[in-house]
TrEMBL record:
<dbReference type="InterPro" id="IPR046336">
    <property type="entry name" value="Lon_prtase_N_sf"/>
</dbReference>
<keyword id="KW-0645">Protease</keyword>
<keyword id="KW-0378">Hydrolase</keyword>
<dbReference type="InterPro" id="IPR015947">
    <property type="entry name" value="PUA-like_sf"/>
</dbReference>
<feature type="domain" description="Lon N-terminal">
    <location>
        <begin position="11"/>
        <end position="203"/>
    </location>
</feature>
<protein>
    <submittedName>
        <fullName>Lon protease 2</fullName>
        <ecNumber>3.4.21.53</ecNumber>
    </submittedName>
</protein>
<dbReference type="GO" id="GO:0006508">
    <property type="term" value="P:proteolysis"/>
</dbReference>
<dbReference type="Pfam" id="PF02190">
    <property type="entry name" value="LON_substr_bdg"/>
</dbReference>
<dbReference type="GO" id="GO:0004252">
    <property type="term" value="F:serine-type endopeptidase activity"/>
</dbReference>
<dbReference type="InterPro" id="IPR003111">
    <property type="entry name" value="Lon_prtase_N"/>
</dbReference>
Length: 212
C-alpha cells in the first residue's frame, strides 16, 4: 500500500476528453501520437511509472486549459503493435490537484501535483452501505438497452460495490464535464448518487425520470 510520501511531486499529464480514471480502476489506452509515445517511453524509465489523466477544458484555440483535479495511474501493462503504437493499461492510484504546469523540454505536458486531501484513495476499497444493488442494476439495464451497450451482467452482479460503481462511471459514455463530476465525488456513495442521476437524466432525455 502506497503512502502520500511515496508519490512523485512532478508527473506527466495526459489530457483526454471523456477518459476517466479512478483509484483502483483500470483504464486501457491506445497511444499513437508521437508526443505521447515519448511520454510512455519516459514513464518506463521512472521508478513510479505514473501518468496523470486529466480532463481538458474546451477553449477556442491553442493548448486546452485543464481541470484542476485529475487522477494518476501506474503503467501496469504495455504491448507494442508492429507499426509502433502502444496499447497500455493504467491502474488508478490517487487523484491529485494541479499546482502548476512545469515548463520543460518534453513534447508532452508536465505538472506539479498535490496529493493533499486524497489520502483515502491510497487505502482499501470503499464501501457504500446505502447501495441498493438490485435497483441499481435494473436502472443500468434500461440504460444499456437504450444506448445499445453490452456487458457481462453476471460479473457485474458479483462485483464489489466500489468496482461496480467505478467501472460504470468510467465506461458509461457521459460528457467530459459529467465525468469530471464523477471524478471529484468525495465518497463512493456520492459518486453512486451522481452516477444514478446522470443515468436517469440520459434515460429521460433531459427530463425528470427517477429510479423505480
Amino acid at each position: 500500500m502506497l503512502h502520500p510520501a511515496d508519490l512523485p511531486q512532478t508527473i506527466p499529464i495526459f489530457p483526454l476528453p471523456g477518459a476517466l480514471l479512478l483509484p483502483r480502476g483500470r483504464l486501457p489506452l491506445h497511444i499513437f501520437e508521437p508526443r505521447y509515445l515519448a511520454m510512455i517511453d519516459d514513464c518506463l524509465k521512472t521508478s513510479h511509472r505514473m501518468i496523470g489523466m486529466v480532463q481538458p477544458r474546451e477553449v477556442p484555440s491553442g493548448e486546452p486549459r485543464l481541470h484542476s483535479i485529475g487522477c494518476a495511474g501506474r503503467l501496469t501493462a504495455l504491448s507494442e503493435t508492429e507499426d509502433g503504437r502502444y496499447m497500455v493499461t493504467l491502474t488508478g492510484v490517487s487523484r491529485y490537484r494541479i499546482r502548476e504546469e512545469v515548463e520543460g523540454f518534453t513534447p508532452y505536458r508536465m505538472c506539479d501535483a498535490s496529493w493533499d486531501g486524497f489520502e483515502r484513495d491510497l487505502g482499501p476499497a470503499e464501501r457504500d452501505p446505502q447501495f441498493d444493488r438490485t435497483r441499481f442494476l435494473r436502472l443500468l439495464g434500461r440504460y444499456f438497452e437504450s444506448e445499445e451497450l453490452q456487458t457481462d451482467w453476471e460479473s457485474l452482479g458479483e462485483a464489489e460495490d466500489e468496482l461496480l460503481v467505478n467501472a460504470m462511471s468510467m465506461l458509461c459514455p457521459f460528457e467530459p464535464e459529467d465525468k469530471q463530476a464523477l471524478l471529484e465525488a468525495p465518497t463512493l456513495e456520492t459518486r453512486r448518487e451522481t452516477l444514478v442521476t446522470l443515468i436517469e437524466f440520459a434515460l429521460a432525455g433531459g427530463g425528470d425520470e427517477r429510479l423505480q
